[in-house]
Amino acid sequence: MDERTPQSAxxxxxxxxxxxxxxxxxxxxxxxxxxxxxxxxFGVAFLVTMGLLYAIGYLFVRGVGIxxxxxxxxxxxAIVNFVWWIGIGHAGTLISAILLLxxxxxxxxxxxxxxxxxxFAVSCAGLFPVLHLGRPWLGYWLFPYPNTMNVWPxxxxxxxxxxxxxxxxxxxxxxxWFIGLIPDLATLRDRSENRAAKIIYGMLAMGWRGSARHxxxxxxxxxxxxxxxxxxxxxxxxxxxxxxxxxxIPGWHTTIFPPYFVAGAIYSGFAMVLMLAIPIxxxxxxxxxxxxxxxxxxxxxxxxxxLINRLHGPYSFFYFxxxxxxxxxxxxxxxxxxxxxxxxxxxxxxxxxxxMWLERFIIVVxxxxxxxxxxxxxxxxxxxxxxxxxIGTIGLFLAAMFLFVRILPMISIFEMRTLLPQAEVKAx
Amino acid sequence: xxxxxxxxxxAEFDSPSDLVAxxxxxxxxxxxxxxxxxPFPIEELAEAIGFHTNAVPLVVxxxxxxxxxxxxxxxxxISAITYPINVGxxxxxxxxxxxxxxxxxxxxxxxxxxxxxxxxxxGLPMPYHPVFNVPRFAFATKDRFFLMVxxxxxxxxxxxTRRFLEALxxxxxxxxxx
Lengths: 428, 178
Prior knowledge:
Chain A is mainly alpha-helical. Chain A contains 15 helices and no strands. Chain A starts with a helix and ends in a 9-residue tail after the last helix. Chain B is built from five helices and four strands; from the N terminus they run E-H-E-H-H-H-E-H-E. Chain B has a four-stranded antiparallel β-sheet, covered by helices on one side. Chain B starts with 5 loop residues before the first strand and ends with a strand. Chains A and B meet through helix 2, helix 6, helix 8 and helix 15 of A and helix 1, strand 2, helix 2, helix 3 and helix 4 of B.
């Protein structure tokens, strides 16, 4: 490792012991009073989630006609948002699984909330294809189950592949997140003063007692799960891109889509990780654990994946905005000073998220709105229901994140302990 | 088998190095039914207490194979046997189209096997365990390291074992009621 500042910055500030790491992270959940800011933030996110419920309720009553989609542009916001949210989720798995296999120890302090982010983002993503079905209450028809109609799903369709890919991805992300939480839940069980909290955390920890035999099997299972999640995360966005690439629509039928989608996913996902990490570390005083090195490393991953994202599709205003957001502005990340400036990174991340959303919009809508015959050309304009549904899922995502930071340890306590110099076993 | 009123004797240590050294010496002294508890995984510890057979990889392999075979068979049975749809005379068992779901099912079953297998082999969930009767054991999930000799060990003797553990220089010693 070289001597330059952000690179050689420690992943954990010196002077911490097992006890201080434990107390600092668990106290956020156990003893820190819930601030007014939290209530305001959660309240706003909750209200927006209610907006989502309203939009969904109206959709159930009136049908997809309330959206701007029509022939020729049959796919609109729902699919754009689906791809956008799935992509955001990918960074969580990348951080937790791929960086674990590569033994990047700086991931230990950001993997927990990145995994939570994955779960919530995939939940938001999963809503859209179901809402887009037309008769969403029959969504379970997508799964193969014996039924009185005697019909089965068509396994040659990428849309059915998508069902399996996304539901597997959600399940594996949930398992990975939960298995990582078990030792920390045991810590909360033993630290908690409140009887109800003790019982709830105790049930979730399932009687974990940190036995050497248990740790040995635990580590193996965790590592294998990471090994399984790695090809999975690459496959999920590949399958999402198949929804487009296997069709015969010009602009969609292209072999570049799988790698292109995966790179875009990591790009936007890291932007979301930074958008969340920067305010969280400030508000909860976690600068000791999420250091400038983490910000710098995340920024470099964004820069690298951003270079893979090339120009695509024709749509004047959105297209140029996309170019500016995804290609132009992120180039400032070459400057090292900016890579460690929290405010600067926060803004660049926001710009990238907007840019990646525009990219998906362009892929979905622009290819559709020019049909094969000029007489069939049309335009797609999102309605207020499209917007309310989209903004509503952002509310749902934020509300879930607010709850998560309040009731679960947002940094993996036991993995932070292993980073301390005291954790090294000295030879006799 | 003689009945002992206690579950075992537990010694508390301050650092992972102390615990690993103590565990090695206890195991070398001929104690076999021992266990060690730490707030984070310590690679050397499992080997120090004589734990070598980790069956998790095998369980995951079996899970993955079951997922792979059943995933493909599900699609084959649906598309070629029970609900065949003739699309321009193309083969019913169109295997390239079935690869994606086969892969996803492999990952799903292997992942479930990893988590459920790990928990089952560890005997979890187990809400009650005698070690929790020791008040100091609450620190095993914070910053303390514990070594335990079970009373079922053939070499176990309340007085002798206690003296042996005291010689290892622990911070404290407690008897674990069963």
